[in-house]
C-alpha cells in the first residue's frame, strides 16, 4: 500500500506518493486547493493508500503559521469522512526552502521556477514524505 503526502497551500497543494513498497517518495501532482478533497478521494479509489501525511505548517520558532487553521479544517474533514485511511501531521518547516534549493541544484531554469509555482509544492510534498519515510526507519 502507498503513503500519500500533502503540502497544503492556500491556492495550490502539492501531492506526493510512495511506491507500493514504501521505499521512495515521488511527486504526483499539484492541484488547486479547492479540488484537493475530491482529488484525494478519487485517488484512494484507484490506488491502495495506507495513510496520508499532511505537512503541519509552523514557523521556524515552532509557533503555528497562518495556514494551520486551513490545514486543520482539511485534516478534521478527512478524519470524519474517511476513518479507514488515517491522516497524520508531519513537520513541514523549511520544505519550501529545500524544494527551491533542489530545483536550483537540479538545473531548473529561473523562468520555469517562476512560471511553474506548483512544482515547488509538489517537491515540498515529496520532501515531507521522504523525511517521514526516513523517520520510520
From TrEMBL:
Superkingdom field: Bacteria
Name of the top EC class for this enzyme: hydrolase
UniProt subcellular location: Cytoplasm
Gene Ontology CC: cytosol
Predominant subcellular localization, coarse grouping: cytoplasm
GO molecular-function term, one example from the UniProt record: hydrolase activity, acting on ester bonds
Role this protein plays: Could be a nuclease involved in processing of the 5'-end of pre-16S rRNA.
Protein name: Putative pre-16S rRNA nuclease
Name of the gene: ruvX
Amino acid at each position: 500500500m502507498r503513503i500519500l503526502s500533502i503540502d497544503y497551500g492556500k491556492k495550490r497543494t502539492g501531492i506526493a506518493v510512495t511506491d507500493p513498497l514504501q521505499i521512495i517518495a515521488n511527486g504526483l501532482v499539484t492541484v488547486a486547493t479547492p479540488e484537493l478533497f475530491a482529488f484525494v478521494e478519487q485517488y484512494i479509489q484507484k490506488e491502495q493508500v495506507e495513510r496520508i501525511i499532511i505537512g503541519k505548517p509552523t514557523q521556524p520558532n515552532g509557533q503555528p503559521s497562518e495556514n494551520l487553521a486551513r490545514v486543520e479544517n482539511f485534516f478534521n474533514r478527512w478524519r470524519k469522512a474517511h476513518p479507514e485511511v488515517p491522516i497524520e501531521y508531519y513537520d513541514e518547516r523549511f520544505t519550501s526552502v529545500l524544494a527551491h534549493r533542489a530545483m536550483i541544484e537540479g538545473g531548473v531554469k529561473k523562468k520555469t521556477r517562476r512560471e511553474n509555482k506548483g512544482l515547488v509544492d509538489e517537491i515540498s510534498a515529496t520532501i515531507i514524505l521522504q523525511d517521514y519515510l526516513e523517520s520510520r526507519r
